Amino acid sequence: MEFVVVGKVISPFGIKGEIKVLPIAPEEFVLSLQRIFFKKKGGDYIPFEVESTRRHGSFVLLKLKAFSTPEEVEQFKGAHIFLPREELPPLGEDEFYSFELVGMEVITDKGRKLGKVDHLKDFGVYDMLILEGEKIMIPFVSDIVLNVDRKKGIITVKEDLILI
């Protein structure tokens, strides 16, 4: 079973043992979670039942059934939240999850290799592809990103519209 990251724990929140989560998957999806998984270092994925979720600014607060104090959930600070890939909602033909783009090679329509996607950053209106070394940032918009080939792991961008 393949697991994917859907969020990252920022810190404990409040006195009831909630955790403040930065959603990586769509926020509405994270708000609907019934269970999550944490991964032990070098070990297995461990499931936890979600008691409740709620919005808190640009974060989501999760209350896990197994914990009731901030001290108990402190251990998860900085941890990634995982789900089995098959539990993610289906996407349309031209839609992608951020994690699918990470590691893909970015080339221009003129054949120039720019590097691999290290991560994406949400700028509200659009996501930005951040390449390894963080020296190149490319808006993930249709005017610039011409093609995403999942099978080959290549993103093609319009060279004339990016600053290199």
Can you tell me about this structure?
- By secondary structure, the chain is mainly beta.
- Helices cover 8% and strands 46% of the residues.
- It has 3 helices and 12 strands; from the N terminus they run ββαβββαβαββββββ.
- The protein has helices spanning 27-31, 70-73, 98-101, and strands at 3-13, 18-23, 35-39, 45-56, 59-64, 80-84, 105-108, 113-122, 127-131, 137-139, 145-149, 154-157.
- The strands form 2 sheets. A 6-stranded antiparallel sheet has the order 3-4-5-2-1-6. It has a 6-stranded mixed sheet with strand order 10-9-8-7-12-11.
- The mean pLDDT is 90.
In short:
The protein is mainly beta and 164 residues long. The chain is 8% helix and 46% strand. The chain has a six-stranded antiparallel sheet with strand order 3-4-5-2-1-6.
Task: Please describe the structure with a list of short key phrases separated by commas or semicolons.
single chain; 164 residues; mainly beta; Elongation Factor Tu (Ef-tu), domain 3; SH3 type barrels; 2 domains; six-stranded antiparallel β-sheet; 46% strand
